[in-house]
Every structure is written in C-alpha cells, then in structure tokens.
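Lab notebook: predicted structure, single chain.

Context: the supervisor wants predicted structures on file for every construct in the current expression panel, including those that have not yet been purified. This is the next one on the list. No modifications to the sequence; it matches the entry in the shared construct table.
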Amino acid sequence: MERAIVLINATPGGEDEVLKDLRSEKAVRQVYQLYGLYDLLAVVEGEDDHAVKAIISNRFRGHPKVASTLTMKVLNST
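Prediction complete. Output recorded below exactly as produced.
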C-alpha cells in the first residue's frame, strides 16, 4: 500500500467545495481544513505508486477549485 500527504490551496471561496469532494473520494483516508499557507491537507492511499499519482492528478489537480498542490510521499509510518 502506498501513501502520500497532499497540501492543497483552493481558489478563494472554494475551500468548502474541495473539502466536501475530497471526503467522498475512497482513496482519501483523511482530510483536514487548515489555516496558514495551505487550505487543506489530505492523506491519500492506493495499491501502488501509480494509483496514488492518478488520484492526485485526476481528482486533486483536475478539480476546478484547486489552485495548487504539494505532494509528499510517505516512506515509512508507525
């Protein structure tokens, strides 16, 4: 199982819509609304690296209310 943490900047006023849409994604294990440099933090999980990349590219970056993302691949967790 592969996992990534994605920091997301939404377009102004789009935070709630992006949050709602990400919560409905099966691959998104957790999503948090933030204050600070980024609007949202999502934990994405997939069968392999390709699956994680696909969900980030298609569902996150392809979302009309997502302005930018920063992805960090999880190498190890406890």
